[in-house]
Amino acid sequence: MTADHITEIGNKEVPLKVSLFAWRLMHNRLPTTNNLVKRQILQPNAQLCVGGCGMMEDAKHLFFSCNFFGKLWYDIVEAKFLINFKDNKP
User: Fold this and answer.
1) pTM of the prediction?
2) With DSSP H G I counted as helix, E B as strand and the rest as coil, what are the percentages for the chain, rounded to 5?
């Protein structure tokens, strides 16, 4: 993580809930099934993605490589910020 990322997260123009979410994402502190298993909140057999793709659910998978949720996030970003990812979709 670079100093630029830290500065952007703490930007006063960014809503606090967005800053907290970004911080938790970058520090692997989101309640993914993988993290909940590590903290012994869920059983080890519960690590699979809730999207039904059969992969282990962690933040990287959910936001970037999951066929269901990764695509959903790309679609949301494209619609909200008018960014076209075309060839970079999961």
Assistant:
1) 0.64
2) 55, 0, 40
